[in-house]
């Protein structure tokens, strides 16, 4: 029952592709989706608004940015993934994101100088289709709290976990998915405060089983 129930929700809610599409839900469906996340409803709405503003800013410069650039937003932090032809265009993308209202911090994971071919898009989509059911069917893993993207065989995970054990489970699942070259970990552990508000811990660069969570990385070369 858990797998079937989550499958229905994730079909419209979980981001698992290089080309990220806007999420469209009715009011009732959206309320149910938000209720299954650790983020408060107000934060989900704020992050969604920020993502829409980013997309509008990117579209105002180039519609190609919408197809080749992915943005995930979590507690006002933005993870930028995708492919740009030149460093100058990458700098333009990051500047647009940083200048968007509601953005606190930007994590730059752009590939520079690589063409994002149709064959590579298909390969990334194939990897994504393997990740999705594995997340749904794994005990102790709660996929509605993660935003996962795949670009050039690299997997990026942004979101929250309730414990180090859950985080390790998610990372192990992603690393062991066929076709994955590298996993980029932007998961944080969320613990409640006495006032009932979420407390984000484990943020910043640190080691975990050989996996380092990095600070914003300006224009890494193609990896």
Give a written overview of the molecule.
There is one protein chain. By secondary structure, this protein is α/β, with parallel strands linked by helices. The protein has 2 domains: 92 residues, 2-Layer Sandwich (Histidine-containing Protein, Chain: A), CATH 3.30.1340.30; 96 residues. The chain is built from 7 helices and 9 strands, in the order H-H-H-H-E-E-H-E-H-E-E-H-E-E-E-E. Strand 1 and strand 2 form a beta hairpin. Helix 1 runs antiparallel to helix 6.
Query: What is the global morphology?
Result: globular
Following the backbone from N to C, one meets helices and strands in this order, namely: HHHHEEHEHEEHEEEE
| Percent of residues in β-strands | 25-35%
- Could you give a short account of the major beta sheet? 4 strands, mixed
Structural class: alpha/beta
Strands ordered across the widest β-sheet: 4-5-6-7
Beta strand count: 9
How many H/I helical runs?
Answer: 7
What is the count of structural domains?
2
Question: Topology of this protein?
Answer:
Elements: H1 2-13, H2 27-35, H3 41-61, H4 63-68, E1 69-74, E2 77-84, H5 87-98, E3 105-112, H6 118-137, E4 146-151, E5 154-161, H7 164-175, E6 182-192, E7 198-201, E8 206-208, E9 211-213
Offer a quick outline of the entry:
With 223 residues, the chain is of the alpha/beta class.
């Amino acid at each position: 029952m858990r797998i079937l129930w989550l499958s229905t929700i994730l079909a419209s809610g979980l981001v698992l592709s290089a080309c990220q599409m806007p999420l469209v839900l009715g009011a009732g469906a959206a309320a149910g989706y938000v209720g299954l996340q650790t983020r408060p409803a107000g934060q989900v709405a704020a992050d969604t608004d920020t993502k829409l503003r980013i997309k509008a800013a990117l579209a105002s410069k180039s519609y190609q940015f919408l197809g080749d650039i992915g943005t995930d937003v979590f507690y006002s932090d933005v993870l930028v993934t995708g492919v740009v032809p030149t460093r100058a265009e990458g700098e333009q993308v990051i500047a647009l994101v940083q200048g968007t209202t509601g953005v606190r911090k930007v994590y730059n994971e752009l590939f520079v100088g690589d063409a994002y071919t149709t064959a590579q898009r298909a390969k990334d989509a194939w990897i994504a289709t393997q990740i999705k059911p594995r997340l749904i069917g794994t005990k102790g893993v709660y996929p509605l709290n993660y935003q996962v993207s795949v670009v050039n065989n690299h997997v990026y995970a942004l979101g929250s976990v309730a414990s180090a054990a859950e985080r390790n489970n998610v990372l192990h699942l992603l690393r062991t998915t066929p076709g994955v070259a590298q996993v980029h970990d932007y998961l944080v552990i969320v613990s409640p405060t006495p006032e009932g508000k979420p407390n984000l811990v484990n943020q910043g660069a640190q080691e975990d089983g050989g996996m380092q969570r990095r600070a914003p990385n300006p224009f890494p070369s193609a990896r």
